Amino acid sequence: MTVAQLALRQVSKVYPTKPPLHALRDVDLDIGRGELVAVVGPSGSGKTTLLSLMGLLDTPTSGEVWIDGIKASGLSEAQRSRARSDLIGFVFQQFYLLSSLTARDNVATGMLYQGLGPAERRSRADAALERVGLTARASHRPGELSGGEQQRVAIARAIAGDPAVVFADEPTGALDQASGRMVLDCLRAANQTGATVIVITHDLSLAAMFDRQIHVLDGQVTG
Ligand SMILES: Nc1ncnc2c1ncn2[C@@H]1O[C@H](COP(=O)(O)OP(=O)(O)OP(=O)(O)O)[C@@H](O)[C@H]1O
Ligand SMILES: [Mg+2]
């Protein structure tokens, strides 16, 4: 039997605001290994919430999240962090690079919790930067890189530890179309070398290039 890479069973998320906000309602979803998935839907529909739950950044109010055959609710906080650093890479709209570090060190720092020595981290960082076409920029700091290059450094950081799943939340949202296309190509390349890749995007022409689209509407997953 093949185990889905990600499985959600009757997942709901209620934020404890006043009044409480039902961000997701009874979501059932299966994503297989090696899928390349776009998540689309209007602002406020629950896309980032869904990604936070699948990426073990947050816990559901009810229901079960499974990743790689592991039931997330059965993990302690420490085990969850460990699973996150072992299994998952994240890319966000705003890059979140450390401005004082070079591209190489930004990527290497992403592997701090994987139990690798500094030399191994650096060599993996260089390999990841090569995969996103930034070998020549490895010693540059974020302030010396374009927005598209910074996002490719963030992708290198996400893939350097060889994660099973890469999540990206609006990775092209702050970029022009040409840079956005390059970022998408990097994510697709990561998918072709084996990672399951899940990308939130507002851009429907971008979403059309994915194998599968998941539509989120009013806290529910359709299509
Ligand atoms: N931490 C929070 N506390 C309370 N409400 C929240 C929190 N985070 C999100 N929400 C609410 O939950 C709903 C879903 O938010 P979410 O961020 O998942 O939407 P989204 O689909 O990612 O939207 P966007 O496209 O604008 O990024 C929204 O109504 C939002 O206001
Ligand atoms: Mg969002």
Question: Which regions are unreliable across 5 or more consecutive residues at pLDDT < 50?
Answer: none
Please list the strands of the largest sheet in the order they lie side by side: 6-7-8-3-9-10
> What do we call the CATH topology?
Rossmann fold
The number of helical segments is 7
Helix content: 25-40%
CATH class: Alpha Beta
Instruction: Note the beta-strand portion.
Output: 25-35%
The assigned CATH architecture is 3-Layer(aba) Sandwich
| CATH homolog superfamily | P-loop containing nucleotide triphosphate hydrolases
Number of strands: 10
Report mean pLDDT, rounded to a whole number: 95
SSE pattern, N- to C-terminal: EEEHEEHEHHHEHEHEE
The shape is: globular
Q: Structural class, from helix and strand content? A: alpha/beta
Radius of gyration: 17 Å
Largest sheet: 6 strands, mixed
Distance between the termini: 25 Å
